[in-house]
Amino acid sequence: MTVDPSTLADRVDGDEVVSLVQDLVRIESPYFEEDEIVDFVFEWFDDAGLDPERHPVVESAYTGYEGANVLAPVEGSDPDAPTLLLNAHVDTVELVDEWEEDPLSGRVADGKLYGQGACDMKAGLAAAMVATRELAAPDVDLAGDVLFTAVVDEEGPYGLGTDQLIRDGITDECDAAVVTEPGPVLAQSDVENPALLLGARGRFLYDIEVRGEAAHGSQPRKGTNAVAAAGVLADALAEMETADHPDLGSGSVCPLGIEGGGETLSVPEHCRLSVDRHVVPGETETVVREQAEAVVADLDLDAEVSIGFREGPEGARYGPYVTDRDHPLVGALADGARATTGRDPEFGYFASVGDFNYLGDRAGLPTVIVGPDGANIHGAGEYVDTDEVVEVTELLVDGLARYLQ
Fold first, then answer.
1. Which of 9, 90, 333, 364 could form a disulfide with 399 if both were Cys (CB 3.0 to 4.6 A apart)?
2. Which of 405, 333, 401 shows the shortest CA–CA distance to 366?
3. Which CATH class is domain 202-309?
4. Is the pLDDT of residue 1 over 60?
5. Which residues form the Peptidase M20 dimerisation domain (predicted)?
6. Which CATH architecture has domain 5-201+320-404?
7. Exposed / middle / buried, residue 239 (Cβ in 10 Å: 0-12, 13-18, 19+)
């Protein structure tokens, strides 16, 4: 390349990055309602001369959703060099009611930028956008390619944007991935930026059907109460033993809800129990089903129980993954952290699931999560630390240039 990687980070304009986060936060974009922010991201890259494209996302069977990702490629000079997928989502959760100010204000105070989605993950989106533009500068001669992907519906039920990337074979052309989700705030252990998160647990969602026998509510012993049985089962599942992993920790079980019953004076004959099941490597769908069935067998309930899983698009499951610390991408990002912050990076693992699971497990890409810290994600008062947004942008520019040179 014609410039030294360490000088690229010096080009990052911190005020511009923070201003871009504000612009993004001020666009309301809950999942399934991302058209406006998709247009913004597309036009931003178009103005930067990067030839973006809209990548259609369609799911008709379960959601009826139609939307689009934004792709922005940066072409390197060596076809044999690696291609890096840089991934960020544009959507947020629904605006929560408890905000005491405008949830779309983008207000900055005391080094914090406030707004729904500020930390999760419009700050990471802005960092990835600016980093991509800087790596595409005319005097930067990368050997490898960058494919920036701004995806929809990460916060929704199925992660349809990144799912579509995989279904359409776009990830087949990539060798590794970086996702700019907020890292430290959602890490399994206490880490501080610069931090590289190298894996995540996976997730299944039990959809359990419980059938009892109806009777008059004044004579409950003449029936079998499906809701009561589901409550007993929920308690037992919450105490179920799960596997351990040296990096990802333990699996977990969390009952989420019971739906059924409701008649004025009748013993409920049917209900459904929803249970979250975070998993580590080795806890496959078969294993997870057998674990739950064993719990049911031990309880010897009068009710009939059928163990199933939430329905969804074929293949849209969050598998666990771990990226090797010795992978060249990890080394390049670590060097980038040292060069831009003067500190060794901390290593950690994500506590929950997201598009990185699709990339790290389904697509089989070594995947690293790098993002700015903040607090109150998905809640009122969400904010991101502005200094960290700038630091992460600089780390990305430096580290990715090293990986792709």
1. 333
2. 333
3. alpha beta
4. no
5. 199-300
6. 3-Layer(aba) Sandwich (3.40)
7. exposed
